[in-house]
């Protein structure tokens, strides 16, 4: 059975972790499948992605059965090679979603632990069920978070929060995660809310949406204020008067939904 399924409807890619009997835990095959799903969408005619997990949990972390397999191998050969640009396979599980040019919305329920937590961090927006539990779980197994979390977390929350969660490995509630900036909002049906948000995004200018995501990523990269201001102006120059923007103006004037012909 496929560990990840992807369905594209109305320019929205619905990507679902499909290993519910293991609470969508990540083993090497699951990691490969998640990365492959993201890579397959790079050139797709999509405007948003909804990332979810089938069953009671979004993703309960690394598959415990994989620990023996990983420990028996050569850690240097397994972890250190940069197989995906500046990342290894397991780091790319989270980072591939930041590399996608369109917004990614994660719908979170149940356990969002370890690998699952870091996967969720790769999304642009995280919608969590009230009962969701989130954790940096690696310390429980004598490890450190190593799936992109340390590249993503400092943009979302405070240093003391990162340290507390890393050192203790204690799960936190969805409300606590929201208070700490790790969850965007809480909803009784996070998948429905994520899908509604994706539909709203898909109705906006695809070229402007892609430019916005790229601009935000650049602004968060540590670029100087001068460089960010230039990047803003360049992005705007590339949008003004172009087909997508003119269609938005026409649609707004006519009181109708825009009809875009470009992929962004």
TrEMBL record:
Pathway annotation: Lipid metabolism; fatty acid beta-oxidation
Annotated InterPro entries: ClpP/crotonase-like_dom_sf (IPR029045), Ech1-like (IPR045002), Enoyl-CoA_hyd/isom_CS (IPR018376), Enoyl-CoA_hydra/iso (IPR001753), Enoyl-CoA_hydra_C (IPR014748)
SUPFAM superfamilies: ClpP/crotonase
Xref: Gene3D superfamilies: 2-enoyl-CoA Hydratase, Chain A, domain 1 (3.90.226.10), Lyase 2-enoyl-coa Hydratase, Chain A, domain 2 (1.10.12.10)
Residue intervals passing through the bilayer: none
Family of this protein: Belongs to the enoyl-CoA hydratase/isomerase family.
Name listed for the protein in its UniProt record: Crotonase/enoyl-CoA hydratase family protein
Species for this entry: Roseovarius pelagicus
